[in-house]
Amino acid sequence: MSDLASPETVQVFTTGGTIDKEYFDAKSAYEVGEPQIGTLLREAGVAFPFHVEALMRKDSLELTDADRDLIADRILATPHQRVIVTHGTDTMAETARVVAAALVAAEAAKTVVFVGSLAPARFKATDAEFNVGFAAAAAQTLPPGAYVAMNGRVFDPHHVRKDRNLNRFEPVSSPS
Fold it and tell me: Where is the active site (predicted)?
């Protein structure tokens, strides 16, 4: 659903990551493919307007400071106050911290929710559908700021880390 003029429109920016990865055959590695969030939202029958824009198709370990600045710039430039960013999980909190600082510096009253998945959205056993739904709810209800929404929890990007051993996000008392 896309209604760019509606004040309820949720802007979605995609950056790549596991959520969009696809597997071509038994001998190839995963590659970041087409963004999946629009399909997930349409198949879920969401009742709010949204607009999807692909900013890049990268694994989050390949993101640069320039990429993070581009993400922050596009968020600040969108007229929409509610934003979801799909992002790879390895550096999601780092990018969310850059965006949080940009929102403060610009005095921008936007709610930005970063989300990803630990298994590709194309897989039958994936957390992508749940995480996207959770992020959509969070983006529409949280106050302005930048957040990470993973594993059924909302985190301050300055106080979260990905536990690679447990394959989930967890709160921390100081920035990671």
Answer: 18
